[in-house]
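thought: user wants a sequence for this fold. calling inverse folding tool.
action: design(structure=
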């Protein structure tokens, strides 16, 4: 959760998988990330695409349903759904990256403050190397 010392980057990742895939191990990994404080899970959604191309939210297993907060809007669902093939669904996770929170706390304790945070497109780094 964001605090006065550090707000990590908030990201979205969506994973395509076969309809009806077992999400047991994914559930365990999400819990592990949250318990280890390396990620704050803000939302989890299951996105399904019907045979006629309609995109909607699916029903998450009960252990993941508690994490569903509907942060994704209809445009987000359509964008993710457009990437799905027939017979696929997607697990979308919105999370705050907390891996540097302890470093931020140490720097804050030393009188420092966060100046900026954000992502860097990996392709931009690759262009710099050339």
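)
observation: tool returned 130 residues.
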């Amino acid at each position: 959760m964001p605090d006065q010392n550090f707000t990590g980057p908030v990201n979205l990742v969506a994973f395509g998988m076969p309809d009806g895939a077992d999400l047991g191990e994914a559930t365990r990994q999400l819990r592990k990330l949250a318990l280890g404080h390396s990620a704050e899970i803000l939302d989890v959604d299951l996105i399904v695409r019907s045979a006629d191309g309609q995109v909607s939210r699916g029903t998450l297993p009960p252990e993941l349903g508690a994490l569903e907060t509907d942060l994704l809007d209809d445009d987000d669902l359509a964008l993710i759904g457009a990437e799905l093939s027939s017979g696929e669904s997607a697990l979308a996770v919105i999370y705050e990256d907390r891996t540097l929170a302890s470093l931020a706390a140490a720097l804050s304790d030393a009188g420092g403050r966060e100046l900026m945070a954000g992502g860097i497109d990996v392709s931009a780094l690759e262009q710099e190397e050339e």
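thought: summarizing for user.
answer: Here is the designed sequence. The radius of gyration is 18 Å.
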